Amino acid sequence: MTLEETAAQTAELESLTEESLTRGLLVLANLDSDLARILETLGPPPMWQREPGFATLLCIILEQQVSLAAARAVFSRLCGVVVTLTPETFLTLDDVQLRGIGFSRQKILYCRGLAQAMPKAGYAYATGQLDLTKLERMDETTIRTELKRLKGIGDWTVDIYLLMALQRPDVFPKGDLAIAIAFQKLKNLATRPTPIQLEAMTQHWRPWRAVAARLLWHYYLSNANSKSVTVSQ
User: Does the first or last residue of the chain, that is N or C, have fewer Cβ atoms within 10 Å of its Cβ?
Assistant: First the structure.
């Protein structure tokens, strides 16, 4: 491995801080005048941090293909029922209880599969195949591979977990609808870019694409008509 590759891998494993966020914003503003305009007009975006672990990953699954407001309402009701959300407490709830909270049939399947994959001493249905604490220290490719082994977890879910829970600096959720809408408006495009097009058109933002994503969400949410972010899996 070359020195450049080693440095890139080290940077990938580092988490964003307020200091590195500021540094990334300055780099992006110099690279892209449209991003500079967002920063000048709206100021820096929030960090949008989440606690790594089971509860956050379950919440992100709930956010697939619905508005954040709807997903958070379901998550809030869930937390009101189990008090402390862990794989064990989640698995005590049956389908009727989960549907009453607001879970769809698919998301019951996905979230139960996630809970069963977590290491839980003494639980009969535990597979113990997913240790999120160990995963935190791994590279993005490994994390993506391991998480996508579970039914219902795709690239968007992994991207949001990497970006918000693990604070990786160069993750870009190209399948996020709000980001696509913001990018189209920012760049004055006739059509909304596809995930493949977004990936190609944002390469010059590396290694700060997670910072650019925050700027795009910041821009999207500044629109008075955008009351919540709708995302796609």
Answer: N
